[in-house]
Amino acid sequence: xxxxxxxQPRDPQAPKGRPTPKRNEARGxxxxxxxxxxxxxxxxxxxxxxxxxxxxxxxxEALASGDERHxxxxxxxxxxxxxxxxxxxxxxxxxxxxxxxxxxxxxSMLPSLQLKNISLLLWLVVILLIVVDSIxxxxxxxxxxxxxxxxENRRGAIAxxxxxxxxxxxxxxxxxxxxxxxxx
Length: 184
What we know:
Layout lengths: L22 H5 L13 H25 L12 H11 L8 H13 L3 H36 L8 H9 L19
């Protein structure tokens, strides 16, 4: 062998005249992380929590004001807005269910057998009225949604409206945007 030829075969990828650099040498010095990126997992989790809190605060504010941009997904869209306004613009039997249930429960606890029988009859009447009212709301709302939004996704809008009827008006979220008797 000559002096120009090294005793070990040269790596074809290595620069000529020196050994293959180690990985950390080849990459170069580590760059510091960007100032916007998280410094650790703890910091990332903290930022994520703060972002979630801010988003939830925006949602709560939107539920109180009716701002469509920040509403939760279940309340967004023109079909859901129509369903809300349709329910909020009229009285329904279902919204009085909780107060009626308390009254009927108190009547059923009284010692009089006659009052207990009346309370059972009242349960039957209230449930029957709620079912009939819900069927009427469903039919009218379906018709109105089909007329106004024939191409929109209507899935779940009727169930959404019926669940809204079960809540007392002042407890509904998003807050009612129409007065009773107004046309939705």
